[in-house]
Amino acid sequence: MRTVGELLRRWRHRRGLSQLDLSIAADVSARHVSLVETGRSRPSADMVIRLAEQLDVPLRERNRLLLAAGFAPRYPERPLDGDALPAAREAVERVLRAHEPYPALVVDRRWDIVLTNHAVAPFLARVAPELLRPPVNMVRLGLDPRGLAPFIVNLAEVRSLLRVRISRQLAVAPDPGLAALHEELLAPGGAEVVHRAGSEVATPMIFRFDGRELRLFSTVTTFGTPLDITLEEVSIESYYPADAETAAYFTGLDL
């Protein structure tokens, strides 16, 4: 097991900071940072948290730092779809319902789907049943040939966008499960796609169902200043129509 000093040094290197940079940001001496990293000084729990905050260490990894320093974890991890976070769950469900008739869903750090609104159902009805066995992964639904991939007109572009997003996630906080998903479905191969300029808002996902093209762009919503691991790691993916024809299709759905 790595020491807290070794873990802090890895996070500092990952953020591209010197010991002096970190010491100034955390309002401690550079010597103290050095002593902590080399194991010659045992930091208090509050010092571990202070350094982790300046390094933008995710809550899950802050617990790991605390354990390595000999302290109990501070940040709980409770399922959003359980009964432990009723206010947060109600807030998320309100957002999902309010977004109808357009699709919206909640995903965790590995892009597993936690909650959806009713407008997602027509999309899930088109994928193979084996892809709907929990945990249902949004990236796999989109890129697997048994999923939505055959219906996505600009599949290479969508894959490229997902590759960029997940690569950024891994750069911020490495995760073995997410890395495995990236290797399975998003490993670079062939010519890279250059994203098109000129879209009014963002690069759309273009679906073709029954001869009709649906153009959607997405936004991402996260919780501000969460103190629970689950709340820090979930995001709401909301999809909007990119043209009048797509808007008309969704407003005509019987939800």
UniProtKB/TrEMBL annotation:
<dbReference type="InterPro" id="IPR010982">
    <property type="entry name" value="Lambda_DNA-bd_dom_sf"/>
</dbReference>
<feature type="domain" description="HTH cro/C1-type">
    <location>
        <begin position="8"/>
        <end position="62"/>
    </location>
</feature>
<dbReference type="Pfam" id="PF17765">
    <property type="entry name" value="MLTR_LBD"/>
</dbReference>
<protein>
    <submittedName>
        <fullName>Helix-turn-helix domain-containing protein</fullName>
    </submittedName>
</protein>
<dbReference type="InterPro" id="IPR041413">
    <property type="entry name" value="MLTR_LBD"/>
</dbReference>
<dbReference type="Pfam" id="PF13560">
    <property type="entry name" value="HTH_31"/>
</dbReference>
<dbReference type="InterPro" id="IPR001387">
    <property type="entry name" value="Cro/C1-type_HTH"/>
</dbReference>
